[in-house]
Amino acid sequence: MDEGKGISLSHNDFKGKGFTTRAIHDGQGAEEHTGAVSIPVFLTSTYKQTSPGKTKGYDYSRTANPTREALEKSLASIERGSYGLAFSSGMAAITAISMLLKSGSMVLSSDDVYGGTYRLFNMVLNNFNVGIKMVDFSNLQVIEKELEKSKYDMILIESPTNPLLKVYDIAAISGIAKKHNVKLVVDNTFMSPYLQNPLDLGADIVVHSTTKYIGGHSDVIGGAIMLNDSVIYEKLKFIQNSTGAVPSPFDSWITLRGIKTLSLRMKAHCENAMQIFTYLMEKKEKGLVDKIHFPGYPGTEYNKIQSRQARGNGGMISFSLNSSKAREFSEALDLFTLGESLGGVESLIEIPALMTHLVIPKAEREARGITDGLIRLSVGIEETEDLINDLEKGFKKVFG
Ligand code: PLP
User: Fold this and answer.
1) Which residues are catalytic?
2) Is residue 211 lining ligand 1, measured as CB closer than 6 Å?
3) Which of 126, 213, 254, 329 is most buried when burial is the number of CB atoms within 10 A of its CB?
4) Which of 88, 91, 221, 254 to mutate to test the pocket of ligand 1 (most atoms within 8 A of CB)?
């Protein structure tokens, strides 16, 4: 790739502009040949060379593709990072990060992570002699002691966590990580770059399942990595090209389309989730609901941290009923679709112990509070009243 300028898409730099302006424009200037305002889907695997090795900046689409490149610039911009990399799934992005590690490395992780991340480390990477220890990151002293006691090569956290929505102090954890010279990776999927920017809080690498809020319409699987460090970026880009888990040009385009409305959707998710939280609190007062997990739960330590480090509480809520009939509850709803995943415009309901977190052994799950009765909601952007009426059907089914 000798000319390095790429094709004729003008990639503007909107760094000084507000979030929505960047989300709509950054990396996505009009295409120069035709003036197309929407980035074309460059469905090509290879590129014409004028002489062997002489290209217009692209030689093979696993290495680089203009539509994916537009997405990668946009991803970097919305997460306020210098670099972005797009992957074919969130798990592919996490796997690429794990490939920065060598055999014999140890990862310290929060004990409440997506079941797929748990599976990757405990059932795949263990075969490559990469170890993981999971602890509760709510207690900063526990992390400090752990890092003093043993050598770790990476810290991996989610905040808020999946599915218990624990909120960890990213800036404080980053301070501890830096003191011990360990890289901090934050999975920011639940917040989206609109609500929280871990790089600004001191994280070294941010990872997303773009399948969720960034894509936002339950129509594409994807992953992203954003970061500021050019050396780690080059390593990850090398891993991306070497292992090949890249998104297709069409998947890149549809993810870009999602990004343009991310701020509008996130505002609606936050508003609806807050109203549903209030509704569930009323059910709690009546004795129908046992526990509610929500970053916006006033008076909790998690809420204090959330208010400091994020610009909203997001659209995820989990709760348990004062009944063993969580399954019946989940089956009684119409608007809340019973399904895995989250972050789409449509509301979803699931039972983590039976679905997203089934892979974690039952005893371990229960010790962490992921009981069979825990229900997780991904609150969509439908009319609030309709969502509440739908939940009411569940309460009627279980409690009469
Ligand atoms: N990280 C979190 C927090 C998730 O919830 C998920 C999936 O649910 C992933 C990563 C994995 O993403 P994907 O399903 O796109 O591979």
Assistant:
1) 62, 114, 187, 212
2) yes
3) 213
4) 91
Domain stops at, among 229, 260, 291:
260
| In-domain check, residue 85 | yes
Is 3 a member of any domain?
no
pTM of the model: 0.95
pLDDT (0 to 100) of residue 13: 59
Which residue, 238, 260, 282, sits at the end of a domain?
260
Whole-number Cα distances in Å, 373 to 185, 312, 329, 352, 380: 31, 27, 10, 9, 22
Strand partners, 187: 158, 207
Considering only CA atoms, which residue is closest to atom 5 of ligand 1? Answer: 114
**What is the Cα–Cα distance from 18 to 213, expressed in whole angstroms?**
19
Based on the fold, state whether residues 292 and 245 are members of the same structural domain. no
CA nearest neighbour of 271 among 388, 98, 115, 396: 388
Both 306 and 247 in one domain: the answer is: no
Cα distance between residue 245 and residue 223, in whole Å:
10
Between CA 207 and CA 205 the distance in angstroms is: 7
Distance from the alpha carbon of residue 53 to the mean position of ligand 1, in angstroms = 38
- The verdict on 245 and 280 lying in the same domain is no
Q: For residue 15, what pLDDT is reported?
A: 66
261: Cβ contacts below 8 Å, ≥ 6 apart: 216
Q: Is the CB of 162 under 6 A from ligand 1?
A: yes
> Is the N-terminal amide bond of 160 cis, ω within 30° of 0?
yes
Pairing outcome for strands 374-378 and 348-350: antiparallel
- The pLDDT tens digits of the residues spanning 190-239 come to 999 999 999 999 999 999 999 999 999 999 999 999 999 999 999 999 99
Q: How far apart are CA 264 and CA 129, in angstroms?
A: 44
Residues 6+ apart with CB under 8 A from 128: 103
Q: Which tens digits make up the pLDDT trace of 59-113?
A: 999 999 999 999 999 999 999 999 999 999 999 999 999 999 999 999 999 988 8
CATH (domain of 293): 3.90.1150.10
Please give the average per-residue pLDDT across 260-284, as a whole number: 98
**Residue 100 CB contacts under 8 Å (≥ 6 apart), including other chains:** 154, 183, 232, 235, 236, 239
Note down the domain range covering 374. Answer: 262-399
Nearest alpha carbon, ligand 1 atom 14:
90
